[in-house]
Amino acid sequence: MSEVKVDDKITEAGKLIQSARAEISTRIVGQKKFIDGLIMGIVAGGHILVEGVPGLAKTLAVNTLSDVFDTDFKRIQFTPDLLPADLIGTMIFKQESGDFVARKGPIFSNIILADEINRAPAKVQAALLEAMAEKQVTIGGNSYKLPSPFFVLATQNPIEQEGTYQLPEAQLDRFMMKLLVDYPTPEEELQILKLMGKDSPISVKRLLTPEMIESIRAVTESIEIDEMIEKYIVSIVTASRVKDRKYPFVRLIEYGASPRATIYIYRCCKVRALFEGRGYVLPEDVKSVVYDVLRHRIVLSYEAEAEALTADDVIKEILASVPVP
Q1: Under a CB-based contact definition with an 8 Å cutoff, are residues 72 and 109 in contact?
Q2: What are the b/e assignments for 275-311, b being 16+ CB within 10 Å?
Q3: Could you read off the pLDDT of 57-109 as tens digits, one per residue?
Q4: pTM for this one?
Q5: Which residues touch 314 (CB under 8 Å, ≥6 apart)?
Q6: Which domains are assigned to the chain?
Q7: Tens digits of per-residue pLDDT, 206-254?
Q8: In angstroms, what CA-CA distances link 118 with 51, 156, 166?
C-alpha cells in the first residue's frame, strides 16, 4: 500500500484527540481502552454499550467526557417503572394560553448516560433506540431534532439479572460498540485512592466544543483506506456468517454479524488511525477495533456455551483464519 502524506488537518485533529485523552486521564485513572472507546464513539457518530460491575467510574468517565468536550450531559437511571414519556418528553397543558405544548425530556442533550438500560421495560428501551437511530423524537405528532452531537452510552450490570429486561439481538446491533470495563490493577487502585480519597472535586479543562467535534468528524472522513483493507473488513464480518467447514469456528456461531458491523468497523478504524495521527488505515487498526464492534453481534452456539467460550474467543479465531492483506 502506497504511503499517503499526512494532511495538516489530520495532524491537528489527532493532537486535539490526544489532548482530550490526556485531560480525561487527569480525573480517570487507567481505563485507557474505555476512554478511547468513548472518544471513538462520539467522533464516529455511534453509540456505546458498556458492561461492567458498579463502582468502576463509568458515570464519572462520561461526565468527564462531556466536561472536556464542553457538551450538555444527562444521566437517566433506567428502572422498571420508567415510561417513554419520562425519557423523550410529553405534551403538557398551559393554563395561560389554553394550549398543549411539548415539554422535552432529558434525552434532549448531547451526551446521555442510560444507566442500567436492561432494568427498563421494552417500550422504554425502544423509545431510546428509536432516538439513537433517527436522531429525532416525536411528541404530540410533531418531530423534534436532537442536538448534535448526540451520543448515548448505555450500561449493563453483568452481575444481577433478576428483574431485568434483556436487550434483544436486533436492538444490540444498533450499538456501534460494546466495551467491557474491568477492575483496575492494584497500582491503579492505589492512584485512585490517592486521587479520589479527598473530598475536593477535580477540575478539567474544556478543550473541545460541539462545532470542533463536527470538524474532527469531517477530517476523519478524509482518512484514506485502501481497497485491500476494505476487503479485509468484509472478509472478517462475512466469516462470522459462513457455514463453510474449512473454518473450524463455524460450529461455535449460531448467528453472525450484520452489514452494520462492516460499516462500523470501517468508521472506527478510521478514527483509530486519527488517534495515531495517520492519514491512512492499517490492518492493525482493523484488528484493534474489531473486538468491540463484533462481540455483541455474534450469537454463540450451544457448543460454544458448553465449552465456556466467549464472543472474544470466537473473534480471535476468526482473525486467525482470515488472511491479513
Answers
A1: yes
A2: beebbbbbbebbbbbbbbbbbbbbebbeebeeeebeb
A3: 788 888 888 889 888 888 988 888 888 888 888 878 777 777 777 788 888 98
A4: 0.86
A5: 240, 249, 252, 253, 298, 300, 304
A6: 8-211 (3.40.50.300), 223-321 (1.10.8.80)
A7: 888 888 888 888 888 889 999 999 999 999 999 888 776 677 788 888 8
A8: 11, 6, 6
The helix, strand and coil proportions of the chain, stated in percent and rounded to the nearest 5, come to: 45, 15, 40
For cell 460498540, name the residue: 177
C-alpha cell at 104: 422535552
Which three cell numbers, joined as nine digits, stand for 67? Answer: 466536561
Which three three-digit cell numbers place residue 211?
A: 462545532
Query: Buried (b) or exposed (e) across 91-103, using 16+ Cβ within 10 A?
Result: eeeeeeeeeeebe
Q: Determine the residue type at 222.
A: S
Q: Does residue 186 sit in helix, strand or coil?
A: helix
